[in-house]
Amino acid sequence: xxxxxxxxxxxxxxxxxxxxxxxxxxxxxxxxxxxxxxxxxxxxxxxxxxxxxxxxxxxxxxxxxxxxxxxxxxxxxxxxxxxxxxxxxxxxxxxxxxxxxxxxxxxxxxxxxxxxxxxxxxxxxxxxxxxxxxxxxxxxxxxxxxxxxxxxxxxxxxxxxxxxxxxxxxxxxxxxxxxxxxxxxxxxxxxxxxxxxxxxxxxxxxxxxxxxxxxxxxxxxxxxxxxxxxxxxxxxxxxxxxxxxxxxxxxxxxxxxxxxxxxxxxxxxxxxxxxxxxxxxxxxxxxxxxxxxxxxxxxxxxxxxxxxxxxxxxxxxxxxxxxxxxxxxxxxxxxxxxxxxxxxxxxxxxxxxxxxxxxxxxxxxxxxxxxxxxxxxxxxxxxxxxxxxxxxxxxxxxxxxxxxxxxxxxxxxxxxxxxxxxxxxxxxxxxxxxxxxxxxxxxxxxxxxxxxxxxxxxxxxxxxxxxxxxxxxxxxxxxxxxxxxxxxxxxxxxxxxxxxxxxxxxxxxxxxxxxxxxxxxxxxxxxxxxxxxxxxxxxxxxxxxxxxxxxxxxxxxxxxxxxxxxxxxxxxx
Length: 573
Fold this sequence. Notes:
Elements: E1 2-10, H1 20-23, E2 25-33, E3 36-41, H2 43-49, E4 55-57, E5 62-65, E6 67-73, H3 87-100, H4 105-121, E7 124-130, H5 135-148, E8 151-155, E9 157-158, H6 171-185, E10 191-197, H7 205-215, E11 220-225, H8 229-238, H9 245-250, E12 259-263, H10 269-278, E13 281-284, H11 286-291, H12 299-304, E14 308-311, H13 323-336, H14 346-353, H15 355-360, E15 378-381, H16 388-394, H17 399-409, E16 415-420, E17 423-424, H18 430-433, E18 446-447, H19 450-457, E19 468-471, E20 474-475, E21 491-494, E22 532-534, E23 537-539, E24 549-551, E25 561-563
């Protein structure tokens, strides 16, 4: 256990539902055990109740909940700054050319690391991430997010028309690839999956039908809506039978309490009523909307109908990953709307950047504020001594005024510390633990669990498999929800080569990983983990083959399973 002594500030209440001042809470200390907040109060009270526990002092600034980004495109982290264009032109000239580069898995791996490290450096610990059009790139994102312990909800981006050819896939391929990703990553630790058609402009009715089939797996849904007037007109022409833009999703049953729609700058009253009726949420992306000239977000109209609104950085068309900047721009927009706007206080801004996002993503019971029982995801905002923000904080009248000055002046340079479920983030884990595909060594025999085989089988199209890490014989694999640590003195790391996968097999032949059963299966991918039998194998690395699989009995006392791997005859794929 650890006591954190700090100026703790959060919004356990909803400032949109009553007095904003009543929604704001502050305290002097938190007691954290195993990554969860166990007590909250004054430092004196917590020390008296737990006299032997260490105290970590976070003097100066404010300790607030980790930020929650409700809409952010990870493939666009290298494409920020394309100014002077409306949405569709910007997509064609800036965003989509960059997103096409993620077909290269090594490029996608580097982008995923830069993106996630950027989130952490900006204080964001949870996010609904708009993914890539390429399944291997999504594996890279999920694996890197698992190593960092982040709350990430994301999914393969689906389009079957209008965009660049390399970004398109058929509904059948989209369904199979998405199902495989869901099987591997959904509900693995802090990871979840979101079905993600780019927008109905680039997704036909057949593609949206495929999305509806995927929602039956209990996952999330996200897409774009009503961002730009030219976009809206184009969608209307593509769906002549739809009542409005939102109806293009609604008639496929894609509007649910697990749906988050980005932008919605130009909604009709009927669309707002439909969002409210189905309990869907909206991600407001203020800097992006302003940079692209898309319009001024009608926050009042959403709030008056009870629609949940959270903040999104959007990233490529926006101004970076730092959510306080988005909150400040949201404030500016409402000021510019005059009587049509909604006056926002500092409590509103903190709520929008934290608890509103957690509520929209269904994470309100775990993160979003610093209440007892929730994960200790937190950001310490402490400016450098002598900076303009430090000067202003010294002269703040009260906590609300201090928050106002933080939203007006803070930058990522003022993030003095970030905690992710109780662990302080210390920088990129890829350099420490090894990115997927990076060189690795093998130390001794390593027991392979059924989930490992499942993961390997799922990669057969790419002919490239993840780095798997073990510690003292126990599986510590981030991609399956466990904590992946750096290689220790007694650890074992396994690297599978790109050309090390057979297309077909029967049992174990010549040191190759092959299927244990070869009956035709009318889908690509591996079965569920419980569809298997007893399993007990080890992995070795002779020079001729980086990672063969051999029969090995009695190596470990724990229960293992032999599953049916996903290497099926081509006729069955």
